[in-house]
Amino acid sequence: MLLSWIIAGFLVLMTVVIHYEALRLLDWCVRRLDGLHRLRIVFIVLGCFVAHIIEVTLFAAVTYAAAMSLDIGTIKGTLGHGFGDYLHLSLESYTSLGLGDVYPTGNLRLLIGIEALIGLMMITWSASFTFLEMKSLWDDHNDP
């Protein structure tokens, strides 16, 4: 169980760092799109999407590697046991979709539970960032 907590801590730390750096880079980039209000928002939304996909893939890769090499659990359900199945589980957990067609066993449940929590936080952070940008753009112009 301790190993699962260590892996979970590493994943949380990496996810926060990736997200922070992605938002910082997005902020830097959109400042150069002065006057292109709609393009700035599209750029932010797509950039946040890419950051989330990177984070989901990180969780899937580490979870897959831990399940295969550290014997801390596995996944069960209607799918097989390849990396794509771990990616599916990761995406469904990160977004808190929770379809239940694939589920973790053993200490892998801890990693997946932590992923759901950090996913909620990162999605909220992206929404807040987008809102702040939209608010500043709405304050800057009056055209429809």
Overall average pLDDT = 91
- CATH class label: Mainly Alpha
The total of beta strands comes to 2
Strand order of the largest sheet: 1-2
User: What is the molecular shape?
Assistant: elongated
User: At CATH's second level, what is the architecture?
Assistant: Orthogonal Bundle
Structural class determined from secondary elements: mainly alpha
Tally of contiguous helical segments: 4
How many domains? The number is 1
**CATH fold-level assignment:** Helix Hairpins
Largest sheet: 2 strands, antiparallel
Strand content: under 5%
| Helix-strand sequence | HHEHEH
**Oligomer designation:** single chain
Determine Rg (CA atoms, Å).
Answer: 18 Å
Helix content: over 70%
Could you give the distance between the termini?
Answer: 55 Å
Pick out the low-confidence regions: none
Please, could you describe this protein's structure?
This protein is mainly alpha-helical and 144 residues long. It has one domain (2-137): Helix Hairpins (Orthogonal Bundle), CATH 1.10.287.70. Helix content is 75%, strand content 4%. The protein is built from 4 helices and 2 strands. The chain has a two-stranded antiparallel ribbon with strand order 1-2. The protein is elongated, with a radius of gyration of 18 Å. The protein starts with a helix and ends with a helix. The mean pLDDT is 91.
